[in-house]
Amino acid sequence: MNNNTQPKVIVANWKMHTTSTEAIQLAQGVVTGFREEHGVSVILCPPFPYLTAVSDVLRGSPIALGAQNMYPEKEGAFTGEVSPTMLLDVGCKYVILGHSERRHKLGEADSFINQKVLLALACGLDVILCVGETLAQRKAKQTEALIDSQLSLGLASVPADALSRVSIAYEPVWAIGNADHHATPQQAEDAHAMLRTRYEQIFGKPAAEAVSIQYGGSVVPDNAAAFLSRPGVDGALIGGGSLKADEFLAIVQAAVTVTKSEMQTA
Questions:
Q1: pLDDT score at 264
Q2: pTM (2 decimals)?
């Protein structure tokens, strides 16, 4: 279904890391080292307190700004939360929603994530929706059913004309930062194919062919090309590997190299 010529999207999720100074230096390092390439997009998602500082660094560069989360209200008495309008105000174009850490550590349900998705899109943010299974769920052979549920419930009621602003990040939770369990490029390819098939069932073939599906499972410079060259793997959501500019840029360069190769053989 997917001809493997999707533009590659490399997303840096800094999670709860960096100080203000470190965030600025990291963003500056990525901006300095990144040369805009056809077919590769880069998105940096720093912690909330540093969004403005990183936005200033990214201004005028081809690198986009994203946030790691948001609350599904434009404003109100929601102490400690951040609204989509605030994210837009500081320069965000993207927001990560449904990340495994928010699902499993903070108890976010699919229905709550769906509220965020709908409001983010309505306000003008592009959404990166995360889906994926734990090791226990995988061993119980629940992967397909679980991802089907996360996808269908998370994207419930999304209007057809907003689908172009939604991408999916597949996170095998069991492979994230786990020295004992590593996903293989083949496992990533299989999961992405299953995801795209289900996406087609929900939204139709054109939408499924167009949707970008990133892989998020301990991608590092040494394995980036192996994952990114697999059919249907349209990019990567990077956690720990995004916290050093040289390592992150090596992953970006792998995406550039794979993209050039795919364009030559397309």
A1: 78
A2: 0.95
